[in-house]
UniProtKB/TrEMBL annotation:
Gene Ontology molecular function, alphabetical: ATP binding; ATP hydrolysis activity
Claim: Transmembrane helix is one of the keywords in the record: no
Domain ABC transporter: 6-249
Phylogenetic placement of the source organism: Bacteria, Pseudomonadati, Pseudomonadota, Betaproteobacteria, Burkholderiales
Gene Ontology terms: cellular component: plasma membrane
Gene3D superfamilies, sorted: P-loop containing nucleotide triphosphate hydrolases (3.40.50.300)
InterPro entries (UniProt xref): AAA+_ATPase, ABC_AA/LPS_Transport, ABC_transporter-like_ATP-bd, BCA_ABC_TP_C, P-loop_NTPase
Pfam families linked: ABC_tran, BCA_ABC_TP_C
The entry's keywords: ATP-binding, Cell inner membrane, Cell membrane, Membrane, Nucleotide-binding, Transport
Superkingdom of the organism of origin: Bacteria
Protein name: Branched-chain amino acid transport system ATP-binding protein
Source organism of this protein record: Quisquiliibacterium transsilvanicum
Keyword ATP-binding recorded: yes
Length: 256
């Protein structure tokens, strides 16, 4: 077995008396896509927040390629290879689509605001950013302000920014939520494409079970902040307990 790209040990957060993520221990390996499912309020997004460093754990640890990153704030974890699409919060609304992606590439390369290096590699950055726009099918809108985009396009741009950062671990939290039916395939194709790179690790929070069934190599179920099931998709989906209690699916729906 390869070394896990990401591991959480007894990861826990309490909000007042409420334990939103309760001692979750789980390892995620390169070349796998793990779907994280569970009812609303189960703790899925909070688990992501603890992994990416948006929230500080009450207890437990997070490891990236074996290194303990628990004490690192979010940007430090991004530099270690954790990449997360934030629902719209990391878009620069007053910059164009192209500039948003270019800045992400620039940040990844550590060019910062060194004007000389930015200038000398400007054309190369633009070329790279254009390639990302191609992948997210936003080339036609390259000069539009991010704030002017319809919701679905903003979500695609978020994924573009994530691609530009080139993380080792991709974390998607309901990436197609609020998208129109014709936009969904663009995102799913991108996830499939990332999956083909066997060195990458993907975590996907998703409510749509057809998507989960198709894309995942493994499903974990969170319920009341606890890891309630973990296994191959067919096995987890078929387990009656999971269906009724955790997925809210009637047994009849499962047999397709
Ligand atoms: N910052 C916070 N302060 C207090 N409680 C919080 C905070 N963030 C999350 N919670 C609580 O933690 C629990 C888990 O919420 P979370 O958003 O992680 O669920 P989820 O599984 O992502 O649900 P959904 O499927 O609806 O997105 C909920 O009860 C929520 O109210
Ligand atoms: Mg959520």
């Amino acid at each position: 077995m390869t070394q896990p790209a990401l591991e959480t040990r007894d990861l826990t957060i309490r909000f007042g008396g409420h334990v939103a993520v309760d001692s979750v221990s789980c390892a995620f390996h390169p070349g796998t896509l793990t779907a994280i499912v569970g009812p609303n309020g189960a703790g899925k997004t909070t688990y992501f927040n603890l992994i990416s460093g948006q929230l500080r754990a009450s207890a437990g640890r997070v490891f990236v390629y074996g290194d303990d990153v628990t004490a690192l704030p979010a940007p430090g974890r991004t530099r270690r290879g954790l990449g997360r699409a934030f629902q719209l919060t990391n878009l620069f609304p007053n910059l164009t689509v192209l500039e948003n992606v270019r800045l992400a590439i620039q940040a990844r390369r550590g060019l910062g605001l060194n004007l000389w290096s930015v200038w000398s590699s400007h054309r190369e950055l633009i070329g790279e950013a254009e390639a990302v726009l191609e992948r997210i099918a936003l080339t036609a809108k390259r000069d539009a302000l991010a704030s002017s985009l319809p919701h679905g396009d903003q979500r695609k741009l978020e994924v573009g920014i994530l691609l530009a950062i080139e993380p080792e671990v991709f974390m998607f939290d309901e990436p197609t939520a609020g998208m129109s039916v014709d936009e969904v395939p663009v995102i799913l194709d991108l996830i499939r494409e990332i999956k083909r790179d066997r060195s990458k690790t993907i975590l996907l929070v998703e409510h749509k079970m057809d998507v989960v069934r198709e894309l995942s190599d493994r499903i974990i179920v969170l319920h009341n902040g606890r890891l309630a099931a973990d296994g191959p998709p067919a096995e987890v989906i078929a387990s009656p307990v999971v269906q009724q209690a955790y997925l809210g699916i009637e047994p009849a729906e499962v047999s397709r």
